[in-house]
Amino acid sequence: MLIPLLIAVVVGYLLGSLPFGYLVARARGVNIFEVGSRNPGATNVRRVLGRGPGNLVLVLDALKGAVAASWALLRLRSSAAASGSFDEGQAFLNFHVSGDGWVTMGVAGLVGALLGHSFSCFTKFRGGKGVATGAGGFTVVFPQGALIALLVWVAVAGIYRYVSLASIVAAVSLPVSAWFLRPSPVMIVASAAVAAFVILRHRANIGRLLAGTESKIGQSAASKT
Fold first, then answer.
1. Rounded CA separation 196/181 (Å)
2. What is the SS3 string spanning 157-168?
3. For 67-125, how does the pLDDT look when each residue is reduced to its tens digit (9 = 90+)?
4. What distance, in Å, lies between the first and last C-alpha atoms of the chain?
5. For the chain, N or C: smaller number of CB within 10 Å?
6. pLDDT of the residue at 84
7. 8 A C-beta contact, residue 66 and residue 59
8. Exposure b/e, 179-194, CB count within 10 A at least 16 = b
9. Contact call for residues 101 and 86 (beta carbons, < 8 A)
10. Is residue 125 within 8 Å of 134, Cβ to Cβ?
């Protein structure tokens, strides 16, 4: 089991490391690490370059997480098709993994993608905060929780107008949803770990929120305090 898990993490890391925020901004002649919040995530790209580039980065970053989390399940389905049946208890990547085995592999890919996005080997281990990438991955492995998190994000962002606060509260909603919906013990632990990771990556934002200096939705990079 260890070898396929390591493969999933490595593949996820390489996918997550693709620096779409940096590349999209660079195509516009901007080094995203030198402007705004100096973060290559979709929020900073949107503030600096506008809605179009920001939304493009959002979609691409989410796709990284979705692909990283789903490739293992697709491999499982291919293996099942070859044998004429689909059974979570059958051989997976030529290793016998039963029950929630595919969930474990999908989570491993997602964790790798989050680490790659936040500490990209292509940008000197700098990166974003993992919200979009995590959302894409959880859409695959825990769609109910991802939908709840999205609704929470929209509600908090609409009321308070802070992307960071909405992202933090949405991340916290994941382990809460996992606890009550109980898709698997793996998912409860994984969603709690990812929520803690997202909060840690937002520690500077938390400081600005407490100080009242955090940028609100619609506030440009030039007006950021």
1. 20
2. HHHHCCHHHHHH
3. 999 876 665 555 555 555 444 444 333 333 334 667 888 899 999 999 999 999 999 99
4. 49
5. C
6. 54
7. no
8. eeeebbebbbebbbeb
9. no
10. no
User: Contact at 8 Å (CB) between 40 and 126?
Assistant: yes
Residue type, 40: P
Position 30 confidence tier, pLDDT thresholds 50, 70, 90: very high
**Which residues lie below 8 Å from residue 65, measured CB to CB, with a gap of 6+?**
16, 110, 113, 114, 117, 132, 133, 134, 135, 136, 137, 138, 139, 140
Alpha-carbon Rg of the chain, whole angstroms? 18
> Which residue has 């840690």 as its token pair?
200
Name the residue type at position 203. Answer: R
* Predicted confidence (pLDDT) per residue in 56-79, tens digit: 999 999 999 999 998 766 655 555
Amino acid present at 188: I
The structure tokens listed for 175 are: 């382990």
- Angle of helix 51-83 relative to helix 101-118, nearest 10 degrees? 150
Tokens of 57: 């980065």
DSSP 34: G
- Number of neighbouring beta carbons within 10 Å of residue 221: 15
Per-residue buried b or exposed e for 196-206, using 16+ beta carbons within 10 Å of the residue's own CB: ebbbebbeebe
Q: Is 171 helix (H, G, I), strand (E, B) or coil?
A: helix
pLDDT at residue 185 in the model:
85
